[in-house]
Write a structure and sequence with these properties.
The complex is a heterotrimer of chains A (281), B (422) and C (279). Chain A has helices at 6-33, 43-50, 53-84, 90-98, 105-116, 121-128, 144-172, 176-184, 189-200, 202-216, 221-227, 234-244, 248-272. With 281 residues, chain A is an all-alpha fold. Helix content of chain C is 79%, strand content 0%. Chain C has helices at 2-43, 47-51, 64-70, 75-106, 112-121, 127-141, 147-171, 175-183, 188-217, 220-225, 232-240, 245-270, 274-277. Chain C is flat and about 70 Å long. The chains are: A mainly alpha (281), B alpha/beta (422), C mainly alpha (279). Chain A: Residues 58-269 form the ABC transmembrane type-1 domain. Chain A: Keywords: Cell membrane, Membrane, Transmembrane, Transmembrane helix, Transport.
Chain lengths: 281, 422, 279
């Protein structure tokens, strides 16, 4: 077969599929972002960007991603390397660590609200142990930092597994010989991690990071459950435009803004973690 | 695909009963009401089971409800037969998309509701289906802290504030609960309760000096409010857990508390301000979209929904009261009795100042609500100065009114043309 | 002298290291499991206990909330639909996505970056906005209210995962391995099926699991695109937000369990990766 045509043939099914089920509706929706009544306009973007909640929700979304994603990356790397050198019980431990994969964000919101609410499990535990005299109000508008921490913890709990699975699969592909060679040269475990694992893990790291960052900008259900109205995020504002205000032009415009941010971050990650063709292992 | 077929075979055996019900051409009842699983189940089992021909009752959140409906309207064909939703959902729709129901010869007992249901056209766009209101409820533990001389059935806002302050002083906790969460109905409190009670208006008086007083009072009340209120959307939960002792909410969002522990809670009318005891109804209706595949079946279902027995069954299932004249039986659930009494006292009070639902706003209903929610969030949560926020928001409100040309509704004085923001 | 001290320190340090290691593993397992245990407690509590304070940390085994759902009409049917849709999503996303993952890892071609971006865009745009035009399309073409139609939408959501995961898997396999096979007389196709495929098969299962879980947990499209053939998630979860607390927890629990069982059932494939690493 012609080697020049082969790649196109291979991506053809996905491309066709996405054209029909993503690109077509996407273009219809994006068109709304640039129209109001009849003609072309940027008015929708101006409208959504000038609303007083826009800067706040933008800041919140970025801040949450900036805190959550690095922690998740570190945690997932730690878990993946730990699993890698585990001799006994590896299956079980990995299964436990990947459990949150199966839990939807709505369910995760319900679970974490049960922990942090005033009559929730955390307060029950603290009063039970005598750490607090009476239940504390964790999710109050007076303690935005606590609300933020609760949301971040819930997000870290829920979505680290996605990165873990990708990294575990990636680490599994690194040949043992590299580690053995490194050991022969007297490299410490930390050096082996820095010099062998990290560079060879680049493709998986890239994938994991991009997916996680893109999904972090879409965060909504957990935030709404824990933060209530205190912590507006962009995705919540999109829903509010679409369904509460029935302003689909505004919703589309805001969604495009989110999309733009996602693309920008994706390009940065692609650039920083460039993967050589065909890998060099 | 062998996996799929094998599995389908196994599951089909188990699911034959369920499938048999769904496979017939049931009338699809697409609703935004009675969503909580228990209510939905009660709608299916007790309310709709008596309808010949079978009903597929599907409650949805507003998002999917609207998306599906719009898709069917755009595609020009559909499966939805009957829509059940709030007045606000219908008023945001294009009038041409709803079938004129005038020829059914059915209407509610309230002339006000019937004219609301025309949505500014000369046709009956939906049929009023059931009604509710917002009331106050309290845990009996809170009653001993009522300020001296205060009558719980005729509270003023000042007395409410004093009461919540007493509770805080005695328990060290802020025990007033307000549904300010993402799904909470806080905007209705401002539109139908606070503003009418202090300014005798909603739109005209939005930025009046009286409105400034109203917000000052609310800020005072908020200082005794459980700070987690921004997470509360269904006050029955906080009543039951004891996180809040005195609350304001929709009657059906308090029902579980009364039904689970009827002896522990009391329901009572909303408080009064200088210009009376403002309160507001909640009105849900049933309608038929123009894409309904079987008009006759849809109309038959609507007629069935309006029968007195169905209306009473609906009351039991959802805590929404009938809109037709019915004789209420004695064996109603505790929640219905409690909230029914409170609403009766509220509307029968000498200083009652009933408001109407916003009308004529079309698809700007959401923007209208947002004005009040934004005002609340800026003044109370962000701590911005009241006058400045009201001046700001006033412009947004005026734009909405001018764009829609909606005339004033009670308690605002009637207007010629769009309701002015003074 | 130095040798002696080094020898004396090393076992201690190693033991300390092992303890830290073990403790970390236990801590991380608890971190995942404890919140789930709370969900279990609340599921098995009476409505009064769910609202009580302080909470009990031992489940009361009150089956009231679960029984409510057991009697809920249409649950089995919805469960069946969920499984069918998820299975179709799994198959479709792999069959369609894996070739693209291979192409991305092995070839440089014009438009490659654009293609990757298109793939990612699908996850960077909220589905609830896309649902309307899709629903119109489906109603017009008769795909509306079918398991297949919904599976198509879920496949759209799962494809980025399928493509990117298979891409990183293929990237991890040295191209020299394939080249060696070619020199030994394999065609591109046979080299692929005989050398590469066995190596990445377990990894492909991993992305299939993603597809399954994504489909299983998706609410919005399911609520809009299915009427008679509701999936369990659309059936339960979307009305769950407003249910009384005890039912909220029980419903959440019912949704979590099948996903857990599924992951448990396929965990062997998910992590059979180590077989390769020992080559």
């Amino acid at each position: 077969m012609n080697a020049r045509l082969l790649p196109y043939l291979l991506i053809l099914p996905v491309t066709l599929f996405l054209c029909v089920f993503f690109l077509y509706p996407f273009l219809l929706v994006s068109k709304q972002a640039f129209t109001q009544g009849a003609g072309f306009t940027l008015e929708n973007f101006r409208d959504v960007a000038s609303h007083w909640k826009f800067p706040i929700s933008l800041k919140n979304t970025l801040l949450l991603a900036a805190v959550v994603v690095p922690v998740q990356l570190a945690l997932a790397l730690l878990m993946a390397t730990m699993v890698n050198r585990m001799e006994k019980g590896r299956d079980l431990v990995l299964y436990v660590w990947t459990i949150p994969l199966g839990i939807s964000d709505l369910a995760a919101g319900i679970i974490w609200l049960a922990i942090f609410e005033q009559s929730g499990f955390l307060n029950s535990m603290m009063t039970g142990l005598g750490l607090a005299e009476q239940p504390m109000n964790f999710l109050s508008y007076q303690s935005p930092l606590m609300v933020f921490t609760a949301i971040a913890l819930a997000e870290i709990w829920r979505a680290t597994a996605i990165m873990l699975v990708i990294l575990v699969a990636g680490i599994g592909l690194i040949p043992k010989e590299y580690y053995e060679a490194a050991e022969v040269f007297g490299a410490s475990p930390w050096q082996r991690f820095l010099r062998v694992t990290l560079p060879l893990l680049r493709p998986s790291l890239q994938t994991a990071l991009i997916l996680r960052v893109v999904l972090a900008f879409e965060v909504f259900a957990v935030v709404a459950a824990l933060g209530g109205t205190l912590f507006p995020v962009l995705m919540g504002e999109i829903y509010s435009y679409q369904f509460d205000l029935q302003n689909s032009n505004g919703a589309a415009a805001l969604a495009l803004v989110v999309l733009g941010i996602s693309i920008a971050f994706t390009l940065v990650i692609l650039r920083v973690l460039r993967v050589p063709k065909g890998a060099t292992i | 695909m062998t996996f799929h077929t094998k599995l389908a075979g196994v599951a089909a055996g188990l699911a034959i009963q369920c499938a048999a019900v769904a496979a017939q051409a049931d009338v699809l009842f697409w609703s935004t009401q009675a969503r909580p699983v228990e209510e939905a189940q009660a709608m299916r089992e007790t309310v709709l089971s008596g309808f010949d021909g079978g009903v597929d009752y599907q409650p949805n959140e507003d998002g999917p409800w609207l998306t599906r409906l719009q898709a069917e309207l755009q595609a020009g064909q559909g499966t939805i037969q009957v829509l059940g939703a709030l007045h606000g959902n219908f008023s945001a729709m294009n009038p041409d998309d709803l079938v004129d129901l005038g020829d059914l010869g059915i209407a509610s007992a309230s002339g006000t509701f019937n004219s609301l249901a025309q949505l500014g056209t000369d046709q009956l766009q939906y049929i009023p289906w059931m009604q509710a209101s917002y009331i106050m409820a309290a845990s009996k533990e809170a009653l001993e802290y009522l300020p001296e001389g205060a009558d719980i059935d005729a509270l003023t806002y000042d007395e409410l504030i004093a009461w919540t302050a007493n509770v805080e002083e005695a328990t060290g906790e802020k025990k007033f609960g307000f549904p300010a969460g993402p799904k909470g109905l806080k905007h209705r409190f401002f539109q139908g309760y606070l503003y009418p009670s202090y300014t005798d208006g909603v739109v005209r008086t939005f930025a009046s000096p009286e409105a400034v007083t109203a917000w000052e009072k609310f800020r005072e009340l908020w200082s005794h409010t459980n700070p987690a209120s921004t997470n509360f959307s269904f006050m029955q939960e906080q009543l039951l857990s004891g996180d809040a002792w005195i609350v304001f909410d929709h009657t059906s969002r308090l029902a579980q508390a009364f039904n689970e522990r009827p002896d522990d809670f009391v329901a009572f009318p909303a408080p009064a301000g200088p210009t009376g005891r403002g309160f507001m109804p909640v009105l849900a209706g049933v309608a038929i979209p123009r894409t309904a595949p079987d008009m006759d079946a849809a109309k038959a279902l609507i007629a069935y929904m309006m029968e007195p027995e169905t209306q009473i069954a609906t009351l039991r299932a959802t805590n929404f009261f009938p809109v037709v004249d019915v004789e209420l039986p004695d064996d109603l659930p505790p929640s219905v009795k409690a909230s029914g009494d409170a609403v009766a006292k509220m509307s029968g009070a000498a200083d009652a100042n009933p408001g109407l639902l916003p009308a004529g706003l079309g698809d700007k209903g959401g923007d209208f609500n947002r004005v009040f929610v934004d005002t609340f969030e800026r003044i109370i949560l962000a701590g911005q100065p009241i006058e400045r926020v009201l001046e700001d928001q006033k412009e947004t409100l005026a734009e909405i009114m001018e764009e829609t040309g909606a005339p004033c509704w009670a308690p605002d004085a009637p207007s010629e043309g769009a309701c002015p923001v003074e | 002298m130095t040798d002696v001290t080094a020898d004396a320190v090393a076992p201690d340090a190693r033991r300390a290291g092992r303890i830290v290691y073990g403790a970390t593993v236990v801590f991380l397992c608890a971190w995942v499991l404890v919140p789930l245990y709370f969900l279990l407690i609340n599921t098995l509590s009476s409505p009064q206990a769910v609202n009580a304070f302080p909470k009990s940390f031992i489940p009361a085994f009150d089956l009231g909330s679960l029984t409510f759902f057991a009697n809920f009409s249409g649950m089995l049917n919805a469960l069946k639909n969920s499984v069918i849709v998820a299975a179709m999503t799994m198959v479709m996303s792999i069959v369609i996505g894996a070739p693209a993952g291979y192409a991305l890892s092995r070839f440089d071609f014009r438009g490659k970056e654009l293609f990757r971006l298109l793939i990612l865009l699908t996850r960077a745009f909220p589905l609830p906005l896309l649902a309307l035009p899709l629903a119109v399309l489906f109603i017009r073409t008769g795909l509306d209210d079918t398991a297949f139609g919904l599976a198509l939408v879920h496949t759209t959501l799962a494809i980025p995962f399928a493509v990117l995961i298979t891409y990183s898997l293929f990237s991890g396999i040295p191209i020299e391995l394939e080249e060696a096979a070619w020199t030994l007389g394999c065609t591109r196709l046979t080299a692929f099926t005989k050398v590469v495929l066995p190596l990445i098969l377990p990894g492909i299962t991993a992305s299939a699991i993603f597809a399954f879980v994504i489909s299983w947990n998706e609410v919005f499209a399911a609520a809009v695109l299915t009427i008679e053939n509701r999936t369990l998630t659309a059936f339960l979860l979307q009305t769950l937000g407003e249910a009384p607390l005890h039912l909220k927890f029980a419903g959440g629990f019912i949704l979590v369990v099948p996903a857990l069982i599924f992951i448990f059932a396929v965990r062997k494939y998910l992590f059979a990766m180590w077989g390769i690493a020992n080559r």
